[in-house]
Design goal:
The protein is mainly alpha-helical. It has helices spanning 2-17, 25-32, 38-73, 85-100, 105-129, 135-159, 161-166, 168-172, 180-207, 211-216, 221-243, 249-261, 265-289, 298-315. It is built from 14 helices and no strands. The chain starts with a helix and ends in a 7-residue tail after the last helix.
C-alpha cells in the first residue's frame, strides 16, 4: 500500500507540472505559496490543482464503487454502470440543459447526481422487489433500464443539437475546468458513502459465504445489501456528476486490487480506492500529452488504458472471484 500511496503523490505532482505549459517543481511550489508571476499562480491555483484534486476524488469514488458493486452482486466483471448510474446522470443532464438552459457544470452537476441516485434506486427496487435477494435480477434490471434511458438521451441529443454541444465535454468524461467548489459540493455525499462502506465491509464480506451462513452469523442480509447499493449509487453518482461517464475504472481496478491483495474484502476496498485515484490521475495527465498542446479527455484515456489491462488479466487467467 505504501508504494502505491507514494506513487500517487508523485503522479499528483506531475498533474500540477504537466500541461500545455510545463512548469518546474520550484515554479509549482512558488505558485502554491502565492509567489512568482501572476500567470503561473493562476495556472496552479485555478486550473491544475483543482483538476488534480477532482481526478483523485473521482477515481477514488469509482474504484471503491466498483469493488463494492462486484462484491454485492458476486460478479467479478460487474460495474457501477449496471445500477443505471451513467444512464440516469446523462438523462438528467440532458433534461437540465434542454429544459432549464443550464450550461455550466456547477449548475447541472446536481441534476446528474440526482438522476444517478433516482435511477439507481429504481433499478434496485425492480431488481429485488419480487425475487427477494437475487443479484442477477439487479443486473438485468440495470441493463434494461440503462439501455432505455441511453436511447432516450441519444434521441433528445439528436433533436436538440445545442444541448448536445453544451454537454459534449461532460459526456466525454473529463475533469477539465472543475474547481474546488465542485469537489466541496459533493464531499458530504462522498463522506456518507465512505462511512457506509466502512460499516458494511465486514457483513458484505460474510455474505460471500452464502446467505444462509451469513444469516447464521447474524448478518442482516437485506439491510446490508440496501446500504451497499446506496453507497455504490452515491459514490458512482458523485463521480459521474463531476467528471461525466468514466468507463473501465470501476470494472478494472477491483481486478488489480484482488490480484495484489487477495480476496480479503477490506484490503480490496482500500486498494481499489487508491488504485482508482491513481488510474484516473494517470489518465488525465496522459491525456494532456498524447496530442500536446491539445488534450484528450480522461474518459477516452481510461478506455485506452483499461482495455489492454483487462485483456491481459483475462489471458493470464487472473480475473479472481469477488
Amino acid at each position: 500500500m505504501v508504494p502505491l500511496v507514494v506513487l500517487l503523490a508523485v503522479v499528483c505532482l506531475s498533474g500540477v507540472l504537466v500541461g500545455s505549459v510545463f512548469l518546474s517543481t520550484s515554479e509549482a511550489f512558488d505558485g502554491l505559496l502565492g509567489r512568482g508571476d501572476e500567470a503561473t499562480q493562476i495556472i496552479i491555483r485555478d486550473m491544475r490543482l483543482p483538476r488534480t484534486v477532482a481526478a483523485v476524488v473521482v477515481g477514488l469514488c469509482l474504484g471503491l464503487a466498483g469493488a463494492l458493486m462486484q462484491a454485492l452482486v458476486r460478479n467479478p466483471i460487474a460495474d457501477p454502470g449496471l445500477l443505471g448510474v451513467n444512464a440516469g446522470a446523462s438523462l438528467a443532464v440532458v433534461l437540465a440543459v434542454g429544459m432549464f438552459g443550464l450550461t455550466h457544470i456547477q449548475q447541472y452537476m446536481w441534476f446528474a447526481l440526482a438522476g444517478a441516485l433516482l435511477v439507481s434506486t429504481a433499478v434496485y427496487l425492480l431488481g429485488f422487489s419480487r425475487v427477494g435477494t437475487s443479484p442477477a435480477a439487479l443486473v438485468l434490471a440495470g441493463v434494461a433500464i440503462s439501455a432505455v434511458l441511453l436511447g432516450i438521451v441519444t434521441a433528445l441529443s439528436l433533436t436538440d443539437p445545442e444541448s448536445f454541444n453544451v454537454m459534449r465535454g461532460w459526456l466525454a468524461g473529463s475533469v477539465v475546468g472543475r474547481d474546488l467548489s465542485s469537489i466541496g459540493m459533493i464531499s458530504p455525499v462522498v463522506l456518507v458513502a465512505a462511512l457506509t462502506t466502512v460499516a458494511t465491509a465486514r457483513p458484505l464480506g460474510q455474505l460471500a459465504l452464502g446467505e444462509d451462513l451469513a444469516r447464521s452469523l447474524g448478518v442482516p442480509v437485506t439491510a446490508t445489501r440496501i446500504a451497499v447499493a446506496g453507497a455504490v449509487a452515491l459514490l458512482a453518482g458523485a463521480a459521474t456528476a463531476v467528471a461525466g461517464p468514466i468507463l473501465f475504472i470501476g470494472l478494472m481496478v477491483p481486478q488489480i486490487a484482488r490480484w495484489i491483495a487477495g480476496t480479503r474484502l477490506g484490503w480490496v476496498l482500500a486498494y481499489s480506492a487508491v488504485l482508482g485515484a491513481l488510474l484516473m490521475l494517470v489518465a488525465d495527465v496522459a491525456g494532456r500529452l498524447v496530442i500536446w498542446p491539445d488534450e484528450a479527455p480522461a474518459g477516452l484515456m481510461t478506455a485506452l488504458l483499461g482495455a489492454p489491462v483487462l485483456i491481459m488479466l483475462a489471458r493470464g487467467d487472473r480475473i479472481r472471484p469477488s
